[in-house]
């Protein structure tokens, strides 16, 4: 199963969960199957006909969706309660530009809803089922957080190991044998900032000045992908130092490598556009 599609078992009913713009959406169709396994879509349509449901959906969209169409929403709400009134999830999304609901086809098909809405639907179907759904969903998120923390710690450790290789190369190639310890520290700091600029487009000092409210340093707040790339950059820089390349040339090469590796590791175009570019590459 891909990271974007997961499933939990709630009182014997498999319930699919998928990522939509980095938010968790729960399958309403699966929730409805716990009550009506033969015709789950009928249960969802009946829920959508309810005036209280429409008010909930409308308020949620107004809070989270700048493109929500309030005029169409008012027209739909006025019809709620009429015997002739029907509404499907696709019609709701198409007419109001709603984002809280989503209909999918294929293997992971069905009607999905943001967790805020899905829990309300589950409560409408069965209060007991909702409580078990929340419990199992929270367990899933706790497991995810534990795995992410483990991966983050692993990459942080890898970064520290490579940093030792990196500093050894600096000591052997850049620091003359007769300099003072303060001069050596200055050299180490410069090399560390060379990597910071290549990857984060900021020195440690610049980051601290821009983020006075955050504890730790720039690397403590790095993403898993950034830490993995940082570990690679430290190894590469160590090799560049052994080759005798000047810092200006190393910075250009490391920055280019950081951009290539981050593009491979991240699927988000926005994240890629935020990666630093060295001025000489413009």
TrEMBL record:
One Pfam family this chain carries?
KilA-N
Q: Show the InterPro entries listed in the entry.
A: KilA/APSES_HTH, KilA_N
Q: Where is the KilA-N domain?
A: 4-140
How is this protein named in the record? KilA-N domain-containing protein
């Amino acid at each position: 199963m891909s990271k974007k599609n997961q499933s939990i078992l709630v009182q014997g009913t498999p319930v699919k969960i998928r990522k939509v713009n980095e938010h968790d959406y729960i399958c309403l169709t699966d929730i409805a199957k716990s009550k009506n396994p033969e015709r789950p879509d009928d249960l969802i349509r009946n829920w959508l006909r309810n005036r209280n449901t429409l008010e909930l959906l409308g308020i949620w969209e107004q809070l989270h969706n700048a493109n929500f169409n309030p005029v169409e929403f008012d027209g739909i709400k006025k019809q709620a309660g009429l015997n002739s009134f029907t509404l499907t999830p696709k019609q709701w999304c198409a007419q109001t530009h709603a984002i809280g609901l989503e209909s999918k086809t294929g293997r992971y098909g069905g009607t999905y809803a943001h967790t805020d809405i899905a829990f309300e639907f589950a409560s409408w179907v069965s209060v007991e089922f909702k409580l078990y759904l929340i419990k199992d969903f929270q367990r899933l998120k706790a497991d995810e957080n534990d795995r992410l923390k483990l991966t983050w710690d692993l990459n942080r450790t890898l970064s520290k190991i490579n940093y030792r290789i990196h500093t050894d190369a600096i000591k052997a190639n850049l620091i003359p044998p007769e300099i003072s310890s303060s001069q050596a520290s200055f050299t180490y700091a410069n090399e560390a900032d060379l990597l910071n600029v290549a990857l984060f487009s900021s020195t440690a000092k610049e980051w601290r000045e821009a983020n006075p409210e955050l504890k730790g340093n720039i690397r403590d707040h790095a993403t898993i992908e950034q830490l993995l790339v940082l570990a690679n950059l430290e190894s590469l820089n160590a090799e560049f130092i052994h080759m005798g390349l000047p810092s200006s040339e190393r910075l250009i090469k490391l920055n280019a490598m950081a951009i290539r590796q981050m593009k491979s590791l991240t699927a988000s175009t926005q994240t890629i556009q935020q990666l630093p570019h060295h001025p000489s590459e413009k």
